């Protein structure tokens, strides 16, 4: 019995030793394989780096040679007219003639031997380069123009904005600047104006101030009817589809504000390429604004008023399309995500003070919106709002 036990223990010890031997071999094999893999990766990286350096050096050398040729052609071109006048005899059609016939200076004091054919060849080459440069310049201008349409720059947006603001301002001065008796304002109209300013009666009864109040009203109507949902400018169906897609994508905690904004801007740019401004939307919004503004307008030409309002709404629709495919937004409150439209402290950093009514330092009327560029939770100013304190 003791002999069998000893034999079993010896077999177990032998097996354990074999297991440890196999484990050591596996570890060494894995380490060797990892090392070999690492060395291969390093070798490949060095090879790629050396090849990239070699390619870059060759490209730089080729570019330097091309630049040298262009400089020489440009220098020689300056001598062409003078040299051609001194050369006689027929010119060869192509290629380099067999012997020089004149000597000229290259501008550095060195004498350059040239033939008539060489001069003509240089002249043709220089003209070809100029034509190619003109074609490339034209292509660049076309691409820049297309880029401006697809991705408007901030400067372009501000120009658009100023055009729209000037149109609204001009209409308010022409048709909405007469002092109005307070008893001519209905209760419903009074509530509409009170939302703009609790001091609306002072604006209505003060010379040269009614235009500010009604300019603000036009802007409020544009924001409420058009800017509240930028994609509306491409039609109700497109707007509803984009809203449904946006609602399905926007999941708090799963998609960031940057990602969602990027999707919105990119999608709007694609829609802009495939859809025109929906003129029926422009007509509908213009009619709604007309129905409100006609009650306050001076003069009796309602058709001309409607025509002016439609022009403004059409410009606003273009502006809405711009807002949809950029990060720029209009704001007619004291700050983003706020509902305050008056009664807050005037901020000189974002507001231009067009006039004073109460003179307490607080905004009593916001006339025009400001323009902000939104990048996530950060905002930068493009155009100040006009306010009356």
TrEMBL record:
Coiled-coil region(s): 35-73, 112-146
Keyword Coiled coil among record annotations: yes
Domain of life per record: Eukaryota
Keywords, comma-separated and alphabetical: Coiled coil
Protein name: Uncharacterized protein
Native species: Apiospora aurea
Region ranges (Disordered): 87-109
